[in-house]
Write a structure and sequence with these properties.
14 strands; Pnp Oxidase, Chain A; mainly beta; 190 residues; FMN binding; 40% strand; 3-stranded antiparallel sheet; 3 helices
Length: 190
C-alpha cells in the first residue's frame, strides 16, 4: 500500500507488515509537553515516571489520562496507588525528565518536593500539579492507560515560565513567534 508520502504498511499474505520504528518516528511529529507522574508506593517508597502521554479527558467530572509502559518497574505500585500527581515540567526541568526516565535507584536524589494527595510528591518548580485519585485503568497494548479524577490542581504565580516540550525525540522550548490563538474553537478561554 502507498500514499502520497509513502506508507510503512505493506500487504503480505493478507496481513499487513508494520514498521514499528517508522510508526514511532511518525508519532514524534506530534509535539507534547513533558510530565512526571508521582505516587506513594505501598511499601512507603516514592514513585516517579517521566512521560509525554498526558492529556485532559473531561471537565465534568475533571478527568486526565496518562499511560505507563508495562515494562516499567514501578507499574505494579502505580496500579495500586491510592492517588498520584501529574507534575507538568518547565523548560528548566529537563534534568528531572532525564532523571525520572531511567530505571535507577536514585531517582529522588536532590529532588525537592512536597506531599500531595495520598502522599504523591509534588515537584517544586513544576508548571502545574494535578493531584488525582484513581478513576480507571485500561489495557493499552504495551501500555496501561490510567484515568485519574483531579481533586486538586495548582499553577505557579509566574505565568512567564516556559514549558518543556518533546518533539522528534528531542527536548524543545517555546520560542520564536508570539502567541496566536488556535483556529479551532476552545470551550474555555485561557
Amino acid at each position: 500500500m502507498a500514499n502520497e508520502a509513502g506508507s510503512h504498511l505493506s500487504a503480505s499474505s493478507g496481513a499487513a507488515a508494520f514498521d514499528a520504528r517508522a510508526f514511532r518516528r511518525a508519532l514524534g511529529q506530534f509535539a507534547t509537553g513533558v510530565a512526571i507522574v508521582t505516587a506513594h508506593g505501598g511499601a512507603g517508597e516514592a514513585i516517579g515516571l517521566t512521560m509525554s502521554s498526558f492529556n485532559s479527558v473531561s471537565i465534568d467530572p475533571p478527568l486526565i489520562l496518562f499511560s505507563a509502559d508495562r515494562k516499567a518497574l514501578s507499574l505494579p505500585a502505580m496500579l495500586v496507588a491510592r492517588g498520584y500527581a501529574v507534575n507538568i515540567l518547565s523548560r528548566g526541568q529537563e534534568h528531572l525528565s532525564n532523571q525520572f526516565a531511567r530505571a535507577q535507584a536514585d531517582k529522588w536524589a536532590a529532588v525537592a518536593s512536597a506531599p500531595g494527595h495520598a502522599e504523591a510528591p509534588l515537584l517544586h518548580g513544576a508548571l502545574a500539579h494535578f493531584e488525582c485519585e484513581p478513576y480507571a485503568h485500561y489495557d493499552g497494548g504495551d501500555h496501561v492507560i490510567f484515568v485519574g479524577k483531579v481533586i486538586r490542581f495548582s499553577t505557579p504565580a509566574d505565568l512567564e515560565t516556559q514549558p518543556l516540550l518533546f518533539f522528534r525525540g528531542k527536548y524543545h522550548g517555546v520560542d520564536g513567534e508570539g502567541e496566536r490563538a488556535p483556529l479551532w474553537p476552545l470551550p474555555i478561554h485561557y
